[in-house]
């Protein structure tokens, strides 16, 4: 394991950014306990600083673990603003799909009702 991180300091993810999964499902890599703990936060809603607080871990250690997850291609660093926008778009897409389903059902019921009254 790398002992001196100074050379990579500027490559480490920012504490005010978040992690998003770069893969479908869970990773098929052998992760250690800490890597798994950080992996569980790859939903893009919690900053690295908040993860460090929740896990009672050193912030720099969180940045290093996040860097390793990014390096092996199972996570990506995302600014919190972008992550919030992605979540909002996903929510709007789900709401739009639900509204379209509701509209189709409503129209079918209305047509059936009108057919029943016309006879």
Structure description:
The protein has a domain at 13-92: Arc Repressor Mutant, subunit A (Orthogonal Bundle), CATH 1.10.10. With 119 residues, it is α+β, with helices and mostly antiparallel strands. It is built from 4 helices and 3 strands; from the N terminus they run E-H-E-H-H-E-H. The chain has a 3-stranded antiparallel β-sheet with strand order 2-1-3, with helices on both faces.
Defining traits:
three-stranded antiparallel beta sheet; 13% strand; 4 helices; alpha+beta; Arc Repressor Mutant, subunit A; single chain; 119 residues; elongated
Outline of the structure:
Helices cover 56% and strands 13% of the residues. The chain is α+β, with helices and mostly antiparallel strands.
Give the arrangement of secondary structure elements.
Blueprint: E1 17-21, H1 33-39, E2 43-47, H2 48-55, H3 59-71, E3 75-79, H4 80-118
Antiparallel strand pairs: 1-2, 1-3
Helix pairs in contact: 1-3, 2-3
Q: Helical segment tally?
A: 4
Report the count of strand segments.
3
Outline type? elongated
Tell me the fraction of residues in β-strands, as a range.
Answer: 5-15%
Strand arrangement across the biggest beta sheet: 2-1-3
Helix content: 55-70%
The CATH architecture of the domain at 13-92 would be Orthogonal Bundle
Assign the CATH topology of the domain at 13-92: Arc Repressor Mutant, subunit A
What is the residue-mean pLDDT, rounded to a whole number? 81
CATH level 1 name of the domain at 13-92: Mainly Alpha
Low-pLDDT sequence parts? none
Distance between the termini: 79 Å
Largest sheet: 3 strands, antiparallel
**H and E string:** EHEHHEH
Structural class: alpha+beta
Radius of gyration (Å): 22 Å
Multimeric state: single chain
């Amino acid at each position: 394991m790398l002992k001196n991180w100074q050379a990579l300091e500027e490559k480490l993810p920012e504490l005010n950014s978040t992690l998003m999964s770069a893969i479908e499902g869970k990773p098929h890599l052998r992760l250690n306990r800490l890597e798994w703990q950080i992996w569980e936060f790859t939903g893009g809603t919690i900053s690295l600083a908040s993860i460090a607080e929740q896990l009672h871990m050193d912030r720099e250690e969180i940045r290093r673990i996040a860097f390793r997850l990014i390096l092996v291609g199972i996570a990506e660093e995302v600014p919190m603003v972008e992550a919030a926008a992605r979540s909002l778009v996903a929510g709007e897409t789900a709401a739009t799909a639900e509204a379209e389903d509701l509209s189709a059902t409503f129209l079918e019921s209305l047509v059936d009702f009108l057919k029943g009254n016309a006879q």
